Amino acid sequence: MTGYAQVKSQAGDGISFTLSLKSVNHRFLDPQLRLPVEMDELEMKIRRVLKERLARGHVEVTLNLERRPGQLGLDGGRYRSLRKPGARSGRILDAQ
Hints:
Layout: E1 3-11, E2 15-24, E3 29-34, H1 43-53, E4 57-67, H2 76-95
């Protein structure tokens, strides 16, 4: 059981990702995951899917995220809700 797969795709908001899978024969299932820090919550889900679908093998899963510069999105409503308390606290600090 030897295999390699790689998928590149675009997610919304200027983010693209590359997902790579490598597998070689191994007596037991031995998943190795390399995920960005902000994707740590996916680790258990990926391990569960691998365990459900594979019986054995050394499997390396690598996820890379790429953000294009200048493509950061800003939710206007969220910004306004965060800005107002900050403005109030600034006035309180200036008054002291």
